[in-house]
Specification:
This protein has 13 helices and eleven strands. The protein is α+β, with helices and mostly antiparallel strands. A hairpin with a 4-residue loop joins strand 2 and strand 3. The longest helix is centred in the first third of the chain and has 21 residues. About 40% of the residues are buried. The mean pLDDT is about 95. The structure holds adenosine-5'-diphosphate, 2-acetamido-2-deoxy-1-O-phosphono-alpha-D-glucopyranose and magnesium ion.
């Protein structure tokens, strides 16, 4: 901890950092809750630079996006300091502090908020849909060409498929034979994997500025009212597809099971949760979406779930080098929950289409 406190000293904090504890459940960066002797709290994060190769450009994106959102929130009569992230600069006025290979940043802590790791009820999921739908609306006229692509091909499911096939043929850990069933599951859906990328390339789906990592735990809820307050984790805000933002939320949240549940009997796609999310998301940004986008929302849900399962499987085959793991086989467990959800979504496609029509 003392090392983390020394890092904190390089930032322009109110007071001196006196404690730092690990915080949140992210798979990529390391997050700490900092407390200072002036009674102020901050979020200190070490950015995973093997995932985010250009941290300066990433922070530039975040400064631009948060400034833009603050302007919009102020115009809506909201509180810009609580409605989005605020970067705390280092003592030289920069957005990062580097030490060796590590790269650090600080945000002000948005107080009196809670984060959910899984959905406890339909109201919470509806509220998160409003948050991400509103986020989409706030960024609708953000100049997309000023954004750096923080992870190229992030939701290009076609190129993710090629990464998967490369991992199977290289089989560096000798694990491919253990997961023949999961490999077959992916290969059976090779054509499906191309659907949305092909539509976008044919101009049938517009590129927008999207969040790209719309997990439930990336929304802060007001502790008192339970209302959604801010969308955080802005590292992957880039040009993307609105249906992927919708889909990634469904992947993570339209189930009462955890992403790494090992008892697949407990993992189910909940159509009622899908309905709540659709209602909230379309209620906020449906009027901005094209007919094609709305029509493809259920496919977006299946695509993001399939893609994420395939990414977990790829990482398992490559020896767990991308996502943090906390036990042996963790990425394989995560992959299996995603594929179980994909199978159930495939059965529920018609019901999903009906729901989308109802709220369009
Ligand atoms: P990761 O990329 O590892 O998922 P996040 O940026 O999402 O990291 O942060 C991890 C958790 O920290 C979030 O789920 C949220 O609970 C909390 N968090 C992040 N930023 C703030 C903030 N500015 N104020 C309060 N809590 C925050
Ligand atoms: C990662 O950083 P975190 O935990 O919010 C990943 C997402 C995955 C998610 C799966 C930059 O998100 O793409 O969907 O894990 N983020 C990155 O839980 O790869
Ligand atoms: Mg996060």
């Amino acid at each position: 901890m003392s090392q983390v406190l020394e890092i904190a000293d390089h930032f322009d904090l109110n007071g001196k950092a006196v404690s730092a504890e690990s915080y949140g459940g992210g798979h990529i960066n390391d997050t700490f809750l900092l407390k200072t002797d002036a009674g102020e709290n901050y979020i200190l994060q070490s950015i995973n630079t093997s995932v985010f190769k250009d941290a300066e450009a990433l922070m530039n994106n975040i400064m631009k996006v948060t400034d833009f959102i603050k302007g919009k929130i102020a115009a809506e009569g909201g509180d810009p300091q609580r409605g989005t992230l605020s970067v705390v600069l280092n003592k030289d006025g920069g957005t990062l502090y580097r030490e060796g290979a590590a790269c650090w940043r600080v945000y002000t802590f948005i107080p009196k908020t809670v984060t959910l790791q899984t959905c406890e009820n339909e109201d919470q999921f509806y509220a998160s849909a409003c948050a991400f739908g509103h986020f989409q609306k706030l960024l609708a006229d953000f100049p997309a060409d000023t954004l750096f692509e923080s992870i190229p091909n992030f939701h290009n499911t076609k190129s993710r498929y090629l990464d998967f096939e490369a991992a199977v043929s290289e089989d560096v850990c000798g694990r491919a034979a253990l997961v023949a069933q999961e490999i077959a599951f992916v290969r059976d859906r090779k054509e499906f994997a191309a659907t949305l990328v092909d539509m976008q390339e044919r101009g049938e789906l517009p590129l927008r500025v999207t969040h790209n990592d719309t997990k439930l735990n990336n929304v802060l809820f007001d502790e008192e009212s339970g209302l959604p307050l801010a969308v955080v984790d802005l590292d992957t805000v880039m040009p993307g597809l609105s249906i992927n933002d919708f889909g990634d939320s469904i992947r993570f949240g339209a189930t009462y099971a955890a992403e790494d549940e090992t008892d697949l009997g407990k993992v189910h796609f909940e159509i009622e949760l899908f309905e709540c999310y659709t209602k909230g998301f379309l209620g906020e940004c449906g009027s901005l979406m094209t007919e094609n986008e709305k029509k493809m929302l259920p496919v977006g849900a299946m695509m993001m779930t399939f893609e994420c399962g395939m990414r977990f499987l790829t990482d398992y085959l490559k020896g767990d080098t991308y996502f943090k793991i906390h036990r042996e086989g963790h990425n394989l467990d995560r992959c299996r929950t995603q594929f179980k959800l994909v199978s159930e979504m495939e059965q529920a496609l018609e019901a999903m289409d009906e729901i989308v029509k109802k709220y369009s």
